[in-house]
Specification:
The chain has 382 residues and is of the alpha/beta class. Helix content is 33%, strand content 19%. The mean pLDDT is 97. It binds pyridoxal-5'-phosphate. Pyridoxal-5'-phosphate is lined by residues 98-100, 103, 126-128, 178, 182-183, 211, 213-214, 239.
């Protein structure tokens, strides 16, 4: 490519994508790749989805934008759909634009409700790059440029129930965690750990915030990942696949939290815009269709069982948020996979290849992944 006018803040792949269809994308050089990266878990229904295109066009022609100061039927519907998808009792929705913004607002609400100064977060967790969300993102020291965090953060190692219970006290406004940690490499937190998070937060009057920005919206084979543990948090945040690629995030909370907020307590210009809303409703319509989430679970199980092959020594994660643990640096395996027509992602764990493809992936795509992995030569031993 010629001179770039963008900030050089991404380590770009040597790849220009020009179009997509279903689970496949095409490069400027005319190569087709199966997109196991999913635009970073965003393209929930893949590319050029006929239903999504139809509602987007129809809405854009009718009314492409309006402010949150007016009623919008499509916003009302998107919030109603999301409340129905969420665990019972979480039936109020505040729509924003991104995952970080959703977490920033959830944390703001937790502090607003109580006079406390501390958050408990989990090592390996990532919650975004804004001031509060970034403060609870593990390893922030490498990129967080603010002089200090806005509150104290105490870290608990994943699945260390004792450390978690000991970290939560009467100064704690909230525990924030990803039920399946995405950037860490699709690492599941155990049911027992999530249960301890619920019990200890309740005991100390703190909130449990489930960051489902990456693992929510059907990605792990249930509507939200925390559903599988039978734990109902105080707040769920979500984004990424929420609107299938239109920028959107959401804070989902019970009426007891939301209904006491005065006008002006939260706000956004673009959040809840009509184009995002019609895609939110379309994504949810698919998640709720008979057999859809069952298929996500089936594909996840299939990949878990059949992809322990070639360089892969273990598979972690759930549904279509999976981490392939490799016998060599993931960067090498990713390059080999790209060479064989598969686009996947990395993680902060350098030996994990992360899969987060469109949720309507075909069995043939999973089969192609298996074949590509099997085709990668064994690690060279010196
Ligand atoms: C779990 C989680 N939370 C929050 C974020 C931040 O979301 P965004 O990049 O939309 O601000 C991410 C982004 O990767 C994420 O994976």
């Amino acid at each position: 490519m010629s001179e770039s006018f963008e900030f050089p803040v991404y380590k770009r792949l040597d790849l220009e994508i020009v179009e997509g269809s279903g689970s496949r994308v095409r490069t400027s050089g005319g190569r087709e790749l199966i997109d196991f990266y999913g635009g970073h878990a965003v393209a929930a229904l893949g590319y050029r989805h006929a239903g999504m295109l139809e509602v987007l066009r129809e809405q854009a022609e009718r009314l492409h934008f309006q402010t949150n100061l007016v009623e919008l039927e499509v916003r009302h519907k998107a919030c109603e759909d999301l409340a129905r998808l969420a665990p019972p009792g979480l039936d109020r929705v505040f729509l924003v634009n991104s995952g970080a913004e959703a977490n920033e607002n959830a944390l703001r609400l937790a502090f607003r409700e109580r006079d406390r100064d501390k958050v408990v977060a989990v090592e390996g967790g990532f919650h975004g790059r804004t001031a509060a969300a970034g403060a609870c993102s593990h390893g922030r020291e490498s990129w967080y440029a603010f002089p200090r965090a806005p509150f104290d953060v105490v870290w608990a190692p994943p699945d260390d129930r004792q450390a978690l219970a000991a970290a939560v006290d009467d100064r704690t406004a909230a525990v924030i965690l990803e039920p399946v940690q995405g950037l860490a490499g699709s690492r599941e937190l155990s049911t027992e750990f999530l249960q301890v998070a619920r019990v200890t937060t309740e005991r100390h009057g703190a909130w449990l915030i489930a960051d489902e920005v990456q693992c929510g919206m059907g990605r792990t084979g249930t509507a939200f990942a925390i559903d599988a543990a039978g734990v109902v948090p105080d707040v769920i945040t979500t984004a990424k696949g929420l609107a299938g690629g239109f920028p959107a995030g959401a804070v989902i909370a019970p009426a007891r939290i939301a209904d006491s907020l005065p006008p002006g307590a939260l706000g956004t210009t673009f959040g809840g815009g009509p184009l995002a809303c019609v895609w939110i409703s379309t994504v949810i319509e698919h998640l709720e269709a008979s057999g859809f989430l069952e298929r996500v679970r089936h594909l996840g199980e299939r990949i878990r069982h059949s992809c322990r092959i070639g360089p892969v020594v273990d598979v972690q994660g759930r549904g279509l948020l999976l981490g392939l643990r490799c016998d060599r640096p993931a960067t090498q395996v990713l390059a080999e996979l790209r060479h064989r027509g598969i686009l996947a992602g990395g993680a902060t764990d350098p030996e994990i290849v992360r899969l987060m493809p469109p949720l309507n992936l075909e069995d043939a795509d999973a089969c192609a992944l298996e074949e590509a992995l099997a085709d990668i030569p064994a690690k060279e031993t010196s």
